[in-house]
From TrEMBL:
This is Wobble nucleotide-excising tRNase. InterPro entries: CR006_AAA, P-loop_NTPase. It comes from the Bacteria. SUPFAM superfamilies: P-loop containing nucleoside triphosphate hydrolases (SSF52540). It holds the Pfam family AAA_13. Residues 132-684 form the Protein CR006 P-loop domain. It comes from Nitrosomonas marina. Coiled coil: none annotated.
Amino acid sequence: MLERIYRVKGIGLLHDADGRPHSLKKATLVYADNGVGKSTLASIFRSCASNDPELIRRRKTIDGNCPPEVLLQFSNGQQSSFAKENWNNSHPELLVFDADFVEKNVYAGGQVSTDQRKNLLQFALGSSAVNAQREYDQADTAALAASQLVRDLTNQLTGFHQGVSLQQFRDLAEVSDADNQIAALHELAVEAQNIGLIQAKALPKKLDEPAFDVTHIFRILESSLADIDLAAEQRVKQHLDSHAKPNLERWISDGHAYGETESCPYCNQPLQGVELIQAYRSYFNKDYNELKASVADLARLISNVAPEAIVERLQASFATASATIDGWQEHVEIPPPEFDCEAANEKLAVIRERLEALRLAKEANLLETVGSDDAKNELLGIWSEIAGIIKSCNDGIDNAVNLITAYKASLAAVNLDGLRQAINGLEMAKTRHRQDVLDLFSQLDAALAQEVATKAEKQTKKDALNGIMQTTLERYKGRINRLLSAFGAQFSIPNIDFNYKGGLRSNYNLHMRGANIELTGGIPDFKTSLSESDKRTLAFAFFVASVESDADLANRVVVIDDPMCSLDLNRKQQTRLILKRVHDACEQLIVLVHDIHFMRGLRNEILRTSPPQEIACVKLKTVANRYSNFDEIDIDKECESAYFKCHRVLGEYLNGAAQSSMEVARSIRPMLEGYLHRRFPGLINGGLLFGQVIDAIKNAPQGSPLIHAQNITDELTGINSYAGQFHHDTNPSADQVQIIDGELRQFVERAINVVHAGMA
């Protein structure tokens, strides 16, 4: 049992908390407002139970000046201290329900994860399955180790049998003359390797014959214009002939583009009425300009049809083919092909010269037809001579290809891959029967036998554990559903079981209003179907069901941080009854609460069967720098209403207890108001001042219960005339009123007498 919290330093708001004056009992109730340190205290207990220093390290006081430190005093003189970021010893008998329990075992962020279901199963099974779980884990570890050894040995053997299975490698027979067979196969492989290289050598490629098409060029050369004015044409021709200058027509045509003005660009004389100028304008029209542009493009067209690089490209292709043929000459005699590059160049030059002459003639006489079918056919004939040179060369290359192909077909075909496979097979057979490989197979056989044995043992332990878990979880499910029913929850757990996928974990689902609730995703799902209060209720039911299933509960210290699932009165009452039941069965119950009235109700519930000396009530209070410390608490005083508080203050004053005179004086009127409200519930408006309450009694109609207090209205008026002067609602200067003790005592006695006697 935890007897005392000696000190807590540097952890959350418990920066320097001293709990030595406060002895803890079998039932220890700790009150604290939210944000004062309840959860920090619960985490300290959880850290001590699980020996997990991280739970404390992550709660280190943010602005603290001392390292985390804890000293807990347990029964039989045992102490647990946390210092230098470690516990000197842990106390696994501490069972803690807090936010960490919910997040670790039940849900977080509205979802239930695989890890939470794993942890819940471990928690739910408790000590009943500890031995079976341990034996299964040991068997599982042994089986995993045996399987790992098999894998390790198999991996070691992998390097020796590339390309075949382990069983095929194991089955290889020993070959006595393997080395001689391998040497003979290598000789065959060398020969096959050379044949393969010959088969892979490239063949010569023929020359590509270029295209030769002069149709478009001759279409331009033969083009003329039919819509030029004949008189204008005759006048321009006479003028041109009179000068007898070459290319004069082109020169005038180009200059005509600058003649669209009213005066001559040379002498600035007016052009209006000049007959020759009018003839120029008719002669050099739009069609003429288009024809001139086509003729100007002839040079480009001739260059494209008969480029000088044609023969160079043919010669390069011929050189490549000749080099390829030369590479085959060591294997087969091949007459070399020929390409008459000089003749081809000469004939191409003739074609270019004749096309150029036709172009110049056309430029000199744009309107005249230049060239003829004979000229065109002559050019095609010259080109056919070039094509003949190319064909003659290609015939030689074709002959070479035929000779090479025939030679390759004559070579004996040898299966090089088959030779290599045979060599590899012999090499692998040698490896299979090496001593180190034989040793590995012996170890593997022993490991396989061990694997079979450990897996059988694992299955035996698994079957035993399954039987215990099925029985335990069925009881656990029944306890959970009874708790949920007691809490008035509208959901239940129809089934809870387990599986080993991804590690041993629980499987369960919720049933609500005829529908199954998915734990993760789905519609409806856990996150949206259950309120936060319902989720907390489920987590609390999981915890309590496991705790009450614990066969060693009598030796457990159960810590509950904020057990309130909601403000629902039924759940409050059921929570008190459950905690009372846990208290009766465990060694010690520690409850951390923020609801003082719930704390008083739980204390009173425990007092029904336990003496007061077995109950300790402590609170965490705020001290300097908004840190927290332990302090005593009087639950009854903390919970009393204003009426009972005022009644107590007046009674203590009459009994001689030191009191503030002003507090006593100001307690008279609210005590009498509280008395009248309780004597006549629902008949006196809560917003009335005391004087107005007296008037309501005086003016009560016949038949109203208030008439039974009319016999004390004079006394109440007299007391109010004295007590009213101490309240600001009737006297703004209430703080300055001088109090005479004898007079105060007289009115206190009169007020108490009204309450006790019910009359003046």
